[in-house]
Design brief:
The complex is a heterotrimer. Chain A is mainly alpha-helical. Chain A has one domain (30-322): Orthogonal Bundle (MetI-like fold). Chain A is built from 14 helices and no strands. The longest helix of chain A has 37 residues, at 95-131. The two termini of chain A are 52 Å apart. Chain B has helices spanning 52-60, 87-96, 105-108, 115-127, 131-144, 150-154, 163-175, 193-210, 221-227, 245-250, 255-263, 322-329, and strands at residues 10-21, 24-36, 41-45, 67-76, 79-80, 98-101, 181-185, 213-218, 230-235, 238-244, 311-314, 317-319. In chain B, a hairpin with a 2-residue loop joins strand 11 and strand 12. In chain B, helix 4 (115-127) packs across helix 5 and helix 5 packs across helix 7. Chain B is globular. The chains are: A mainly alpha, B alpha/beta, C alpha/beta. Chains in contact: A-B, A-C, B-C.
Chain lengths: 333, 330, 334
Amino acid sequence: MTPPRTDTLEQALAENRFEWWDSVCELGRELKRDKPGLIGVILITCLVLMAVFAPYIAPHDPAAQDLTARLAPPVWYDKGTWDHMLGTDHLGRDVLSRAIHGARVSLWVGAAVVLCAGGFGVVMGLMAGYLGGRTDAFIMRWIDTQVAFPGLLLALIILAVIGPSLTTVVVVLALNGWMVYGRMTRSAVLSIRQSPYVEAAEVVGCRWPRILFRHILPNLTSPLLTLGILEFARIVLAEAALSFLGLGIQPPATSWGLDVAMGKNYMFMAWWLVTIPGCAIAVTVLAINLVASWLRLISDPQEREKQFARHMAKGMRKNMQAENDKERQPETS
Amino acid sequence: MNTSPKAPLLEVRDLVVNFYTRGGVVQASRGVSFQVDYGQTLGIVGESGSGKSVAVQAVMGLIFNPGRIEGGDIFFKGRSLLDPAGKKRVRQVRGKEIAMIFQDPMTSLNPVFTIGTQITEVLRHHLGMTKDQAKKRAMDLLDMVDINAPEKRLKQYPHEMSGGMRQRVMIAMALACEPQLIIADEPTTALDVTIQAQILELLTDLQQRLNVSVILITHDLGVVAQLCHRVAVMYAGRIVEVGDADPVFAAPVHPYTRGLIRATPRLDAVTDRMVSIDGVPPDLISPPKGCAFFPRCDQAGKACSRMQALIALGDDRHVSCWCAAKEVTR
Amino acid sequence: MTGQTLEGRSDQPLVDVRNLSVLFDAGRAGFWGRKRLTVHAVENVSFDIRPGETLGLVGESGSGKSTTGRAILGRVPVSQGHIYFQGKEITHAGKNRVRELSRDMQLVFQDPYASLNPRMKIIDIVAEPLRVHGMVKNTKAAAKEVARLLELVGLPPDAGARYPHAFSGGQRQRVGIARALALKPRFIVADEPVSALDVSIRAQVVNLMQDLQAQFGLSYLFIAHDLAVVRHISHRIAIMYAGNIVELAERHLIYDSPVHPYTRALLSAVPVPDPPVQRARQRITCPGEPPNPLNPPSGCRFQSRCPYVTGTCREKAPELARRRPGQMAACWNC
């Protein structure tokens, strides 16, 4: 009521402005304890860095052909050279450089699709779950219809009409993938909208967009994040599959799927042509899954506490004993 | 009962239970000791977070990660329940000789089986009865807890019953192996008042009829008043006052007990304003060194902040309060 | 009751509920869903609340007490009857009208843990009503107002900068009250505001609500599931059973000379924290359980558990009728 008092609230707000950083630090500390999750995060970070700085890391231009060095083997073979560390393909292009540049496509497509499909799906799911009635029926039937329609067929039709390109791949995969988000969001909204804090927001006079985006959506972030990351892995695979079929990324651009497809003709003479990009896909998907399972663990508060207890009980007990000893000493002396 | 030389039915000695959370070590039970004699009903009263449930969960072996029993011992008929060597014996004791009734019967009844299946399962597993024997006994048990038409009820699923009925089934299951000790953890908290009255009546009646010992965990002093011979009041992981129910209620010594009794609304007395205890219970991650009630206490002296008191008042009554010590010496 | 309107404006009820019925559609049963199921949540309930008054509404789970409270707030569709607020009918108020009314009528929740959004800071929770009604323009004004509200409910002003999980149950309930008070309402529905709290904290919250009532002249509909807590805060008390009000009387009459057998059973069901007294008490336990709201019995709803049941009770439902000044009951035999 008095002016200095109001200052304390504003001061407190100012002091707590950076408290999110503490929780990030805490998350980091917990990540250190979860080895598989840590490996996943490190791998993904490396992949992202590799994709971003591809032109600086890659030893060669991924599209540069060198017909004199066709199908050169990796360095540990007798004929291998350090110039082409992982060998070359049938046009003499450097396999390592292509794999590095391929990460760009995979991660870009993955991120773009997850954002587009996720954004659209979540908004649809929020509206279906909260507004209910006809909106709900319409959106859900739409989702049902689209889920029933074979995804590959839809992809083929769109690609045949528009023609394959990076953008088309993103559009096609997003169109095929948003339903999962819609369904999951809707079911989560149905349970959260029953909670008293949503009713409180309604009683106070909030309109539905505010309730959806201020009250319901923030409480959905952790399951949605986990789903998004799992979907990311699926999209990386799907993009590789489309490219493998020749419907995705078109040469001269590079993509892991495309490289596997081109290498398959030389599988018996030059195994590295399929194996290197194939491994890249496998490692990416594995890393993403490792991170996803760690995230799922962390987003469940109970599981998080258990995990914590398992790791920390020992150390904390030691600390407590040390403190007790310290307390006891002055009393005895 | 008290004069018999043999050991008490259950004795908990200096029990320490810690929960390892990200916020720090929650010291849920900080040296709790109590005992229950044959045929006696002990009420453990306390508010949420006082450690009353943790104490009996330790008896039942229900302390799981992140919780750990880190000190003290529990004796049932003079033999330790925490002895790692006697795991098999302990498992036998729990469930057969000690039974538990939970607050929410829905969590301990399996929704996919009929209650008949669930009761006979207990009987056949623990007592090795045949199917027919078990069914007959199950009907007797339901009859014992005043469920009419037991034959029909045995075929019902938990969701087909009301909360009060489910709690009766839970009591019947607890009685199935003729235990010597029943632990009831807030058995009536989730129920409506009139149903609560029915269940309390039933428990009082059964306790007298079967002469079992009962530990009743509750936050409601009224429930203790109706059911218990002895009462232990818990606050912040410690027992602050323990003694026979009548004298404790008639002349509470610890300021917290006094406050609690005064704060419990009474229907037989007229007051215009409710009496509250100011402040909030302490944080169990870093509990105060001395008396935990010290910050909320209106009679606190110098000694209170430094050390915990434990004073015997005779008649098996103990209080952990320095003020009580002054009164006794006077 | 209608005669009293002539006695002057001050006696005009703030909230007036006339013959309120709320029926819920509970889907269909039977093969092909031929049978319609209706839950008779509230039936033919009438009461009024005067300015500055607290009406205690007591009933067990499923008695329709929460539904009644929510019907007044326009959160539940009314099947029959009328609700008046400050003399104006609000029975079938539209969305915008309900929003407007939210400035005058607020709700305090039972569960202090679930009723605060765990992802929002206290300042945002308490300032939300002000923001959505455009009553504060910027963060600074909001912070000032929130600090004032927090002080009003006995919380330190810097509490606003923290998240709900940093607070105990009693403190969260204070935050809930601060949120309800933000719009300066005249009427608050308190839906079991202390039943989830510890005994020693309960009194703090009840006393706070009493102080706020005295300070701002608030009216409360105080919902509770037993008769222990409402005694201290209520001026009058209504007892509900299976969707009906069975007794409505001045506070002292409910406790000193209850009329309805259900009221007496409720009074006797709350154990007294005094062993000799409790042991010696004549307990009226009513056997059995409340009727199925999908298929309530014809006649008095309490008939299956009533010790004084007669033939009339099974045939015709008793109306709430005056027994003595300030006391009404719905029973044929008392």
